[in-house]
User: What shape does this take?
Amino acid sequence: MKILVLEDNERLLNLMKNSLEKENYKVDTFTNGEDALESLENGYSCFILDINVPNIDGLSLLELLRLNHKETPAIIISSNHDLEFIQKAYELSCDDYIKKPFFILELIEKVKKLCLIQKKYLKFDENYKYDFKNHILYKDQKEIELTKKEILFLELFSKNLHHIATYDKIMEYVWEGEESNLTNIRAMIKRLRKKIPSESIVSIKGLGYSLNKEVDLV
Assistant: This one.
């Protein structure tokens, strides 16, 4: 699961990055809002935003990202304790507001709560399962190597198992903002179908892909 962290205090930024990575999150860090804005399409599962940062402040960035990322959890961190700022953050649909200084454990626990993968395994059948925490696919307890893009595709189903992963969402999350097209997506799906039961991935004409109803989270 990928997290964007915006914080201009590099010491705190590195502390948050190292702590989150120890919890097996992938973390991209930014010290100014403009660079963070340019990276929004890299496909993040959670945003952690400081308010007082250069170029584009955290609240302005939150307002911009809510145009296309309405459901992605966002945590505001700030040394500004004024009720006005806190109220505005919630009006812009932040999911939590943490006042500085804070214990890093507090942040970790809030991220776990908001970005929780509730189940550990994606079970395709009695022989195949994918371990979300360790990013490993197993066939009869034997590890099968996955590419980064294949891992990110499976991760799309960690919180909403049988939803449709649209082509746009796959390009955004799996290709992390890189240029892509339907040919590349179909090629990736074709390769992945050779590693898991091929019928597990269902093509939804004109929209994207979903998982077969027999696939389960355990």
Notes: The chain has two domains: 2-114, 121-217.
